[in-house]
Write a structure and sequence with these properties.
about 220 residues, elongated, about 65% helix, about 0% strand
Length: about 220
């Protein structure tokens, strides 16, 4: 069936878990080394402060060690660990939000993925169709921004996404988790996961489109 975990991978994960529970320090060090970079990246998507993100990752490993004997291989070990990391990050986030003024919480609310005014209004002949479609993505190096600049704009746009959208996007597009794995890690329904991913991709493209169009206007005005 599509989306089902690889049985062979599950067996390997169970073996790793058993070795660590039995006191195999080398197995634990290897596991930490394997996931350190992606876990820190995911933690940073919730806790913008690098020091706090490090604490989230460290706490994740502490909790994982305490619960590893309960791991049954129903999901991959990576998915299971990601779930612990997200729960830890959410707990830290809740603590942070208690100290944020109510006026600042407006920044955390969700928005439409694409501004409604870019579509034809109800009653129009082309109701719901694009009035201002997205710009065509550049197909040649000559028409694109420099890779370093594009990467910086991409990272900035990802950082501006709402936390859950950002996590879904990173899980799917960066860490390569399946939709089912993301649902397990974040406690989402399949439909909700797809909606969040769509919104994240749409907002990301809109941000990059705006950046690209702005660069073209600057270049044209200077020519």
């Amino acid at each position: 069936m599509p989306g089902r975990e690889d049985p062979e991978l599950g067996s390997r994960d169970l073996e790793i878990a058993r070795r660590i529970v039995a006191g195999d320090e080398d197995a634990f060090v290897e596991l930490v080394s394997q996931h350190r970079a992606p876990f820190l990246r995911l933690a940073l998507s919730w806790a913008r402060d690098p020091a706090l993100a490090e604490e989230v990752v460290q706490e994740t490993w502490v909790v994982a060690l305490e619960k590893l004997a309960e791991f049954q291989g129903r999901s991959s070990l990576k998915t299971w660990l990601c779930g612990i990391l997200i729960n830890t990050a959410r707990s830290r986030r809740r603590i942070e939000l208690r100290s944020i003024p109510a006026s600042a919480l407006a920044e955390l609310t969700d928005e439409p993925a694409v501004p409604p005014e870019r579509f034809s209004p109800p009653g129009h002949r082309w109701d719901g169709h694009w009035q201002a479609p997205p710009s065509a993505w550049p197909e040649t190096p000559e028409g694109a921004v420099l890779s370093a600049e594009l990467r910086a704009a991409l990272e900035e746009s990802i950082a501006a996404l709402p936390e859950v959208q950002r996590s879904v996007l990173l899980f799917r597009e960066v860490e390569g988790l399946s939709g089912e794995e993301v649902c397990n890690a974040l406690g989402l329904s399949s439909t909700h996961q797809r909606v969040l991913l769509h919104r994240a991709r749409s907002r990301l493209r809109a941000q990059l489109e705006s950046h690209y169009d702005g660069r073209i206007r600057v270049e044209e005005s200077g020519s």
